[in-house]
Amino acid sequence: MWGILFDSDYFKNHLLLNVLASHFPSDKTDWIVRDRNKETILASAEHPRGSLTLESDFRDNFPYWTLEFYQPDPLIFETFLTPRRGVYFYMFILIAGILIFGLIFTIRSITHEIELSKMKSDFASTVSHEFKSPLTSIRQIAEMLEAGRVPSEERR
Predict the structure, then answer these.
(1) How far apart are CA 34 and CA 15, in angstroms?
(2) Are residues 37 and 94 part of one domain?
(3) Cβ atoms of residues 60 and 88 within 8 Å
């Protein structure tokens, strides 16, 4: 049976700390190494920023430690400018613009149709009134002539 004995303090304080610090800069990623009881052994920051992104353990040939990586949540402006997320944002803006343009165009068309309908109605009532006025006058005169209400022959 073969095996390696190593000093866990040396492993923790020199090797692991140097590897994690050099490969994961503290401004982009925070990390924590925890033991079996979930107590912190090593950490890049006292309180990690962001949400837990990845959790892995050293079960096979090392002490039962867990390595956790935390990535800070991106700013809203950075989120919209990243290529993957930006496409969805710009598509949303484009679709919202098209919907707003369609709504304005529809309201304008309906308003125009209502105005045309009012103009038709006004024209029909005006023409009807203009035809009815002379016809009413002619009918009244005819009724007066028929009833004999006109006293002189000269007026008839």
Answers:
(1) 16
(2) no
(3) no
pLDDT in tens, 110-143: 999 999 999 999 999 998 888 888 888 888 888 8
Q: Rounded to the nearest 5 degrees, what angle is found at the Cα of 142, between the Cα atoms of 141 and 147?
A: 100
Residue 125 domain flag: yes
State the residue range of the domain holding 44.
Answer: 8-73
Residue closest to 61 by CA, chosen among 13, 5, 15 = 5
Rounded Cα distance, 151 and 137, in Å: 19
Q: Do 89 and 133 belong to one domain? A: yes
**Sign for the pseudo-dihedral over CA of 86, 90, 96, 100:** positive
Q: Tell me how far CA of residue 60 lies from CA of 63, 71, 101, in angstroms.
A: 8, 26, 62
Residue that finishes a domain, picked among 73, 106, 125: 73
At 89, which amino acid appears?
F
State the average pLDDT for the chain: 78
CA torsion sign for 56, 60, 61, 64 is positive
